[in-house]
Amino acid sequence: MKDLIDQLRAKHKLTPEGYRALLTMRDSQDVEYLMEQAREVAQAQFGKGIFVRGLIELTNVCRNDCLYCGIRRSNSNVSRYTLTREQVLDCCEQGFEIGFRTFVLQGGEWGEERSTWIAELIRDIRQRWPECAITLSLGEHTRETYAMWREAGADRYLLRHETHNKRLYSLLHPEGMTIQHRLQCLDCLKELGFQVGAGIMVGSPFQSLNSIVEDIMYLVDFKPHMIGIGPFIPQHDTPFSRFPAGSVDMTARLYAILRLALPQALIPSTTAMATLSPDGRLRGILAGANVVMPNLSPADNRAKYALYDNKASFGAESAQGINKLADELSLIGYHIDWSRGDFPNT
């Protein structure tokens, strides 16, 4: 196994059988060796600084009906909200004063009729805080909309592909949504000059080991600037409410594999990791992750952005708990890096 891990570190690529072997290895010493190598690579690229992004959950209104998602269109038990322009700018102001230099605007997928409003919001943020990076995570849109947002001043776009496997994608999403269109959106975002993030859910219903290998191979080939991976967590008002949550261990293993395959990638240790395990975020960092995204959203709205049950959004997962986050990072020898944290050489 160590030879395989060394090969991945040196050549940044394995055969499907090689990835499968790393995903299924059971010897704890081999697993720890994988984590050690991932940490070394991450520290060689970024040092021991962990980039922080201020997350603003713009809206829980969504036109889609994805079967795993708590804010799916047909969930009538969600109290819907959309932040006003003034609320968003107030979140940015608070975040800037704390020290954040990247804002992440995340939300359910609106129709194109709201695209101009988003563009105007991006321009407002860019004008007030020109040194800050603006990241969007707002789903699938037309090339024209993406181009408008890029021209307005957005720097990055997060669009998890969820799974590269066509059959699995169809089991997780309603009719009319296709993996082909999702991948076309990712290609388009890259062409327009965004720093692009893709990624998957780990342990989603019906996921197989082969589909995870397929995802690794897609990510290694696509070479996203950012990789967003988190364990699946069920939400009680969805068709998948009775499925078990994904594995923190497997998610950390994927962080490590992808760190060795894509050394320069920006890899968040996600909120879902912290939700499933008190030390989940730190375990992600020790597996090669180098980004965390504390929540800047208004406190009254955080529970309404209910993608999954028991979502961590306070304490060290919030912008207001930044000192607690700093303390936790220091315990494992890391510190907060307050810079924009762009992808290297961009």
Give the helix/strand layout.
Blueprint: H1 2-11, H2 16-24, H3 28-46, E1 49-52, E2 54-59, H4 85-98, E3 102-107, H5 115-128, E4 133-137, H6 143-152, E5 156-158, H7 166-172, H8 179-191, E6 195-198, E7 201-202, H9 209-222, E8 226-227, E9 230-231, H10 248-261, H11 271-276, H12 280-285, E10 291-292, H13 299-302, H14 322-331, E11 335-337
Helix pairs in contact: 1-3, 2-9, 3-10, 5-6
The gist of it:
Helices cover 43% and strands 11% of the residues.
Task: Please name the defining characteristics of this protein.
single chain, 346 residues, alpha/beta, 6-stranded parallel sheet, 3-stranded parallel sheet, 14 helices
What does this structure look like?
The chain has 346 residues and is an alpha/beta fold. It is built from 14 helices and 11 strands. The strands form 3 sheets. It has a 6-stranded parallel sheet. Strands 10-1-11 form a 3-stranded parallel sheet, with helices on one face. The protein has a two-stranded parallel sheet with strand order 7-9. Strand 2, helix 4 and strand 3 form a beta-alpha-beta unit. Helix 1 packs parallel to helix 3. It is globular.
What structural category do the secondary elements indicate? alpha/beta
- DSSP helix fraction: 40-55%
Question: How does the major sheet shape up?
Answer: 6 strands, parallel
Compute the gyration radius: what is it? Answer: 19 Å
